[in-house]
Amino acid sequence: MITGSAEIICVGTELLLGDILNSNAQYLAKQLAHLGISHHYQTVVGDNPLRLARAIAIACERSRLIIFTGGLGPTPDDITTATIADFFGVPLVENVEVLADIKAKFAQRDRVMTDNNRKQAWLPEGADILPNTQGTAPGILWQPRPGLHIMTFPGVPRELYSMWQTTAVPYLQDQGWSNGIIHSRTLKFWGTSESGLAAKVNDFLQLENPTVAPYASDGVIKLRISAKADSLNAAEQLIDPVAKQLKAIGGVDCFGEDDETLGNAVGRLLIEQAATLAVAESCTGGGLGAMVTAVPGSSQYFMGGIISYDNTVKERLLGVSPQDLVTHGAVSAPVAEQMAGGVRARLRTDWGISITGIAGPGGGSPQKPVGLVFIGVANQTTTWHIECRFGHRKSREWIRLMSRNTALDILRRTLLSNPQTV
């Protein structure tokens, strides 16, 4: 069994500029954890041989498995293979087998192979081929030094995924890299802060196996519980009791796990209570309805929504009082309540939710600043509202995101605490 850690080096100036999301690093990190391979470092470097060589030198000092993605194509800025070979002082050799494969793939597509594609057939002398059935750029499997393993993959995610599962995983297992698994479960919270939740669960943050780590993403606070064990079942047994305790501490703030959203949480409760929902939106422009319908099976409880940007739509379709629009304005408590009640009545549902607010960047005033949002909730017997202030320094999309999630969370908490009102 090999001991040591892995490192990921992603090559591409487009990654540094933010033009492309680095999903390959995320995929590889999860795959390494699944194999139980320790992974301590990731590097992103542009299409520059000198900087890539420096990244390789640093990686060789601290890691025993170095995984490269990107830079294997036929263009001049694809420099990964040549830089690796040069760093280890090994010549590039044209691989006849790879060249024949590239020619065959061009022929299958009824295309003529250009001269620059021959570049992809030049590999470091002594390196093994990491086959690519989905594209023309192969990778390499290589041990240029005793105890150091090199793997290269194209930057195209589809090609990387196929090559990893087909060749890389069996290779790593055969070489003795796989050492059980590292499995994680993420608990999700809304209505609390990262620092506040961390203070409540501080003792758990000191655990060694499983470990617990807090972080935030798009307003959702998360606790990641990670366990290293010989099998998935053993890892789950380590995680289960810790997750149970953390959920108890979080209480109603904890709405789900892993890929679950607030939309999932609301949907489950609506199904359990055989209740239906409709939404009326102004500043979120249909985003709330999109979150609800992103959940498979939402047609069981979601009847539809009305996007009422203009006041005439609020009046004609939702029954909002013209006088209240004049007196209080479209962004106000009375209008939010009437929007919620109106869409519930119009679409004949058990619940109605509305959102009206000022998402910015313009349109605010000292009395009604950017970030002011009113959320209305209505059922068959009661209508009420919540006033929120999401801050003028935040972006328009942040305010819209917070509005959507907060609206769903208000309904979730209501359904949990008072289901008999349906």
From TrEMBL:
SMART domains: MoCF_biosynth. It comes from the Bacteria. SUPFAM superfamilies: CinA-like, Molybdenum cofactor biosynthesis proteins. Residues 7-175 form the MoaB/Mog domain. Pfam families: CinA, CinA_KH, MoCF_biosynth. Belongs to the CinA family. This is CinA-like protein. It comes from Adonisia turfae CCMR0082.
